[in-house]
Amino acid sequence: MIEKALRGSKKYWLWLAFLASIIFIGFLCYLKQWKVGLGITGMSRDVSWGFYIANFTFLVGVAAGAVMIVLPYYWHNYKEYGKITVLGEFLAVAAVLMCMLFIFVDLGQPMRALNVLRYPTPHSVFFFDACVLSGYLLLNILCGWTVLHSEYKGTKYPSWLKPFIYLAILWAPSIHIVTAFIYQGLPGRHFWLTAVMAPRFLASAFCAGPAFIIIAALLLKRVANFDPGKKAIEALSKTVAYAFIINVLLFFFELFTSFYSGIPSHKAPIKYLFVGLHGHAEWVPFMWAAAILAAVAIILLVIPATRKNEATLVLGCIAVFLACWIDKGIGLIVGGYTPTPFETITVYRPTLPEIGIALGVWALGFFVLSVLYKITIEVKKSKELVVKYNGILFKK
Amino acid sequence: MAIKRRDFLKLGGLTLVGTAASAAVENLLIKGEAKAEGYTSAPESLKGKRWALVIDVKKCKENQSTCGFKCIEACNVYHNIPNIPDPKKEIKWIWKDNFEHAFPEEGTNKYLVEKLEGIPFILLCNHCENPPCVRVCPTRATFKREDGIVMMDYHRCIGCRFCMAACPYGARSFNWYDPRKYLSKVNPLYPTRTKGVVEKCTLCYERLADGKVPACVEACPAKAIIFGDLNDPNSEVNKVLEERMAIRRKEELGTGPSVFYLID
Amino acid sequence: MYNANKVIPGIIIFILFFTAPIWLNFGRLEAIPQPELPKGEKKCVESKEYMRAYHMKLLDDWRKKAIRENQYIYINSKGEKYRISLQKTCLKCHNNREKFCDRCHNFVITHPDCWHCHFTKEEAKKWQ
Fold it and tell me: Are the Cβ atoms of B161 and A108 closer than 8 angstroms?
């Protein structure tokens, strides 16, 4: 089946070459980090996690969000998702891969990464996160690949796969709950110490993941003649709309708790992010950009006419994706570290090499995703040909 | 004979698993080669159940013009702490700050702030009874010893900095660069660190093993830092804490710091 | 076999590539390294043969015992006691990295990162 990825149009190869060149730039930046140390990033003693962990957190959501397609298809037998289910599973594969790479590039001693497995530590959430992430990666490779391979052969997927599919569905929320637990269980980080962290993570995951799939499916429709099915996109766009509204609501609950209670330490990070604090307002434009994107997204996704129109739907989904990326990525991390435990402010700004490495990881994820999607589409298309060749019998 | 690609891959996979398993078995066998008759603790070492520091901030205030903060200097010199000019990337085991920063939740009480104005608060790892950094470390590179010291094993640290996120006292530093470039003189009795690991105060565990008190305690000309075992009712720290008024940082978080500040 | 004219040369190139170190170093067998032992010291904490084979295991055990269990004294197989410390005990005698450690370690191309943190006075001069 993998040979499908080796034969493609000029555009396909150009796209892969473009991604490969970004991966190469990222790799060069990483070599510098390897040599000099994490000092080449903008992180500091006070803001000791930054852009890498921000992207990691967001991408765990994207990976988990794919379950919003897998679940209705397998559990409720919602046939309309038949064409995009594998897209969801493969998105999870690429996203988890990026997560792992983001963790890897964030390590001060990457050669010792396997110490996490050599000295298993059940009381560390990081240990669980490593376990659930690698488990989820394997499950999605297994399920996605086997289902697609059965389709390639023209059979239904084998029955032994069923328990793995159900396990993967149950597993998906767990990766994001565990990731939320990394943050919400820490004393003294007021912005993170909230019980709605995990629900918020799930809500943002269940909108950002499907939003990406809508964008990808509609893009593939244009560039690769792939038809995801009108009903599938319509149903999925409703999922995005509901999940995103819940996500925004949960954010307002946070605002209420912090500002109605009036506790200064709970208000401070939110003030820093949205209006600035002690004369520092580095992230204010980004947070307001996220807020405006969120408003645009809700308008476009709630009004049925704009949700059903492909152009406005894609715009809405892009807005959802970017709003979540800012809010659950950099906003979450910077807010957690600002103010510092001394109630002072240390400014964090990602540096160019840091951004280069992050872009490299994203490009690598997209590279894997493009290859997997290419295989998927070729398999689906070849099936269509067979159907047409056999004539009336199998035509819908 | 024709081998299918699938079978070939399966065979390859099996070979890999087999190699890994045999390597693991070999590793286990070699472990049995330790020749030692045994290990023991040093007879001269200081033994305690829960080491603690009591810092008399009044003495710090009275002597700050003359003492030259020997506690900080002695620690830096002894432990080969690099002097990194960029405050964002610096390494600190013990340092000084004002009351509002050390106790931010009391910072809105202006009468208290006025009373404690101008006092240098010596800050360091609190060697908590219930340390959040130990809870989160995925490799047990940071752990709590039986004598209450929250230790670092630099050989095992992967540099994930989860402990830095967990520490509510900002007591941990990360080696963003190779620290050796920033060392002007070195103490050959103590190693440096390497880039990519987290470090912090270890309460001079190796000095305790030699029967000496921590470097900061020894260096203070005003004897403002008292060191002792909190579990020993007759220790000096216990006596001082019974008589005078002491506060700990961020009491409400339940971490149970072992560093006390005498404020009366 | 399909594409035999491509596959067989491919396999040959692959094998040549992975065995390159053998061919490149063929007939250039260097003398077995002779690390220079510290002068004036007759014995190490354990026998020469044991140290040669297992020093890394011993150092690993030392670290665990000292740091994790507060057991700072090593009692060797003859019952002699040594203070566990790389800086204070090992490097006191083994104070020449090039002539002792590096001679064997370079020969077998293993580069442990001991010296990233541990050092002798001589070593310190290099990066000061």
Answer: yes
pLDDT band at A395 (very low <50, low <70, confident <90, very high): very low
Of A129-143, A304-318, A319-333, A379-393, the one with minimum mean pLDDT is: A379-393
Distance from the Cα of B43 to chain A's closest Cα (Å) equals 31
Q: Residue A95 and residue B89: Cα distance in Å, rounded?
A: 31
Q: Nearest 5°: CA angle at A339, between A337 and A343?
A: 135
Q: How many CA atoms lie within 13 A of A88 on its CB side?
A: 35
- Domains of chain B: total: 1
In a domain, B124, yes or no: yes
B213 belongs to a structural domain: yes
Q: Within the 52-111 window of chain B, which residues sit less than 8 Å (CB to CB) from chain C?
A: none
Q: Tell me, yes or no, whether A293 lies in a domain.
A: yes
Q: Is the pLDDT of residue B30 over 80?
A: no
Q: How many CB atoms lie within 10 A of CB C80?
A: 12
A393 has a pLDDT exceeding 60:
no
Query: Any CB–CB contact under 8 A between C125 and chain B?
Result: no
ipTM of the complex: 0.88
User: How far is residue B178's CA from residue B19's CA, in Å, rounded to a whole number?
Assistant: 36
The answer on pLDDT for B46 being more than 90 is: no
Phi, psi of B17 (to 5 degrees): -60, -45
Contact A184, A43 (CB under 8 A): no
Q: By residue range, what is the domain housing residue B115?
A: 51-262
Closest of A338, A364, A201 to residue A282, by C-alpha: A338
CA distances (Å), origin A281, targets A51, A275, A348, B82, B256 = 18, 7, 11, 32, 35
Sequence-distant (6+) residues with CB within 8 A of A394 are A386, A387
CATH number at residue B197: 3.30.70.20
Chain C residue with Cα closest to B43: C73
Task: Assess whether pLDDT exceeds 90 at residue A226.
Answer: no
CA torsion A175-A179-A184-A188 (nearest 10°) is 160
Number of domains in chain A: 1
Please determine, for residue B169, whether its predicted confidence score (pLDDT) is greater than 50: yes
Q: In C, which residues are within 8 Å of B198 by CB distance?
A: none
**Minimal Cα distance from C70: which residue of B?**
B41
| B250 is a domain residue | yes
Residue A396 is predicted with a pLDDT of 40
CATH code where residue A164 lies? 1.20.1630.10
Cα dihedral A134, A136, A139, A143, rounded to 10, equals -140
Q: What is the pLDDT of residues A62-102, one digit of tens each?
A: 999 889 999 999 889 888 888 888 899 999 999 999 999 99
